[in-house]
Amino acid sequence: MPTTVPAASNAAENFTSREPSRHTKLGIHNIDLFERTCVEGDPMPTDYVFVPKGDVYITRHCKSQTKNSKRNLYIVYDNRGKRSLGIRVPADTYLNVVEQAAETADSRATAVKHRDEKYLSQARSLLRAQFPDMPASVTEKVLQHAYMKGSGRVGRKRTVKDERKIRLAVEAHIRHAHTEYKDMLEAGVDRQTARDRVWDSVQDLRDKWGGSDNKLKARSTERGVKKARATGLKSAAATRSRREVLVNLRRRT
To answer: For bias kind Polar residues, which ranges apply (predicted)?
Structure first.
């Protein structure tokens, strides 16, 4: 549990009187009137506590309540200024937020559970629509693996469109459960080579589960991706070629 660390009066005064600026000594942009940056070795302001990263609710509400009270919030980095460690906030604010967190824990857990169930239900519907011939047992396995909360897997990535997310999740399942992909990795084959070797098998089973309409759509998407990659490679090659010509001309002159 964070504790208040008293600081020498002069050091604390200097620390808390730093003016906010766009560029701190850590190279971090900061234009918030009540937000400061510091490193872990800096003295702790009087009546402040350190709150480590980890609990999103605690961190978010400590930040908002500190700023709303018009008191300084300190973002704490390691002594090299590279890695964020947590925040420093007034001790009374921290204790208030901890109390609120305890009071709302059950209701927040219920809300999260309902939200996750809704998310999985939507994903299940999309899977069945995109892969109508996939066995029901496989559908559940794909959901359990790719959509596991906190896994960082494709099913949880908000930046990937739903249709592509579903296809990638199915391909990942096929690769791991229906090919020799894992055996290849264990035998020392590098990841990309192993993926290339099993790709035809992955594609065939994916198309079988997807039906004729989805098969054509998937193949069209793959052609688009390959075309984009080829265009990018040609552009890069042309840039290198122009650069080489300029270098040779300079050498001649």
So the answer is: 1-18
